[in-house]
Fold these 4 entries.
Entry 1:
Amino acid sequence: MSGAVLDADLVTGVVRKVPHAHKDMFDFIIYSDDAHRMFGINAVLPLSVAYVNQNNDGDWEDWTLTEFDPTRPWLRASPITNPVIHRGLIYLLDEQGRLAVYDPCKHEEGFEILDKPMSFGIFKHYDSHNIYMFESDQDELMVVLVGQRGAPVHVVKLNENTMEWDKVDSLQGRALFTGTHASMMKKIELEWMQNRKVLLAPRCCGT
């Protein structure tokens, strides 16, 4: 089975085909911060990751894969949110609040499931309809928990000292934009937009 991946530049309209990965179909695709490396993540079978580099001519080289290993960690990854690159590491979120982390410098080791957090803390029994993870403008790893039909909306951030999810009570004048493929938090000058949560997910729009 093979998976086709396309690299499309939405500004120039140039589309390049990335070489097939004959061992894996990817559940997630994520670019490195400089956009010259692409990671493919298989989250259905035991967690596995591959990467492909873009050369100086703009073409993509062959995928570097990890061997299939049934003893690798298993994680029920949230299908809604993409993985997030945070301080050079790739984080993958499961539906209960657990995290798996991958260090590109230790590719052969693949993903490691962290011992903590074990849940979303005070929201561990909260029935979230959609879950979105992102890196904030203050370099924090955060998650948005969205209830049925868009309400209520809760925000938590990873306390990297305790490795637990802490509730965020205030956005401190920032606005949060969240959707299926990407989420972001930005400082907003418009007063009416401050401390707002704008949901851009399909069938779910609100504040």
Entry 2:
Amino acid sequence: MYIPILTLLPLLAAANPMLIVAISEVPSNAAPGVTADPSSFCPTGTWYQAKEDKCPSGFIGCVNFARYSSVCAGSKRFYNDCSGEQGLGNFYNCANGFIGCTTRTNVCDLKGLGGAEALPVQIPIVAEGVGENAGWKCPPDTTYFGAGVCATGYLGCLGNKNDVRCSGKVEPGVCPIGTGIYNVCGNGFKGCSTNVNMC
């Protein structure tokens, strides 16, 4: 059984003013807390689980409806990352408003919430050894490595340039284990950091 979205829209808008429904119908058996992605940030066939909806597992981001119950249920195993279960992609914190797991590697380049253009993000140009810029700061004992510093294309905070993450192979937008989450912040920071207050 399906309930037309026009019937539910006033109730959904009252419960969550940021919700912009991108589909015409919602299954009547839809799991609570799963919302249509606000601005098509999620890949086709997935839904957006918002932080405010509080999955017991701590999951935030895009998930296939069939996997929602297994991803959201259980004890806390997601800590602003996607390591609690395979196949959920990487964790992003974007200037356009998207926060969470997705397999969409260009999520930070998409239009922002409500269809607004994504904020222009300027990669900070900092010399090796400089750990802060425009109000953000790398964690203690780390340095920001900007565009062109690492042969791998790695962007973010690291202990030193000889780190394998700077000299090995790194996929764009992916944070190797131990380097935190990938951020694209309105304050200009772009890259991996363990500093949860980077943006």
Entry 3:
Amino acid sequence: MNMIRDELVRILGETVVIHAENLPDSLFAERKWERLPELVQHSEKLHRLGLFEARRSFLLGVEPQLRILLVRHLLDTQMVSSL
């Protein structure tokens, strides 16, 4: 199930989402490759969660550095839409 950007903002706050969006491409690519297995696993799990509260609980439980990468990955892969 895809999320909308506003849902990420409601869960994590505008600052976190903007930080993820503004992460330099080279830094994102480097960190993404370093943590790819975790990133893929978390993306797939989040994609399967349907309820807002389940997504909220899951995202808030993710380690902060990985959370930024996950948000950026979701935005880049269009698993999050900007309705």
Entry 4:
Amino acid sequence: MTPHKRSIVSNGFVRSGYGDMHAHRNALMMEEHVAMLRAHDMIDETMAINLLEPLHKCWAYTEEYLKTHPEYTGVQPEMTAYTTAMRHKKERDVEMAKFVADLEAGRIDEWGDPIGSDEDSASENAKNSRCSSTSTDTDRNTASPLTSPADPLTITIRPPPKMLSNNPAQSDSPGSDLTWPSSSCSASSSSKSSPKSQSQPQSQSPSQGRKRKYRVEPLAPLPGGEDYCQYKYYQLLAICRDRNIHCPGDTQEVRNLLIQDDINIARGLPRDVSRTWHGKRKYKTEVPEELKGGSCSGGSDGKTSAKV
């Protein structure tokens, strides 16, 4: 009987007594893992020596090493149940989807801080109730009366990029840079108006529960064109339905869509036509008499069935 050939593997001593390769592969993978951790200075030399000990031996940390790491208890925390983990994942997905929607709409910045003022809150709440019927944030905010902030902030309004695509004259509009008085001006005027305000602190933090709504800058119409400022929110929606225009957003956003549609018709540009067929559904608010049958700025009729 020929003698068994001696193994030429460098760390063959870590192999089990049955001659399988399980312990050998584990030792090689651990060696690569420890080398990577040491290269990135994530563990010290003592930890590296302990990790390189053969796994088939009775492995344990030394008392000297455990004294330097008092946070180690040796007890693994209980793993979260699968259903609980999936529920947490869905909650995070909903929060992330809301964050992305608010960021794209301009209501918050990339850090999650709100942008803009509180105007057009009624139409914004109506929009939120249509888009998310299961959300209860709007009900909580409107259930209790909220005090307005004592110090208005200085805010410069920038329009969304989509509103400036086909209107080069937007930068010349008188409302391109709207600012509100700073907190220092309001504090000085209030201190001069009444003697009681001098004894009170001038800076008061706004209510934490109040959400500041973003402000949309009005789009400049064509010379002699309609600005739709005299029409209310539901009248504007009726005009959009009559002209078959997709109309999401609050009051000023719908006005901007109508003004942009007038500009596109006058310049022969493609229109943002809705492909939704309203059918025979009846609405309480009708189109104003002077705007029935198409756009206000001349050009072709506002009713079409597809993009031209």
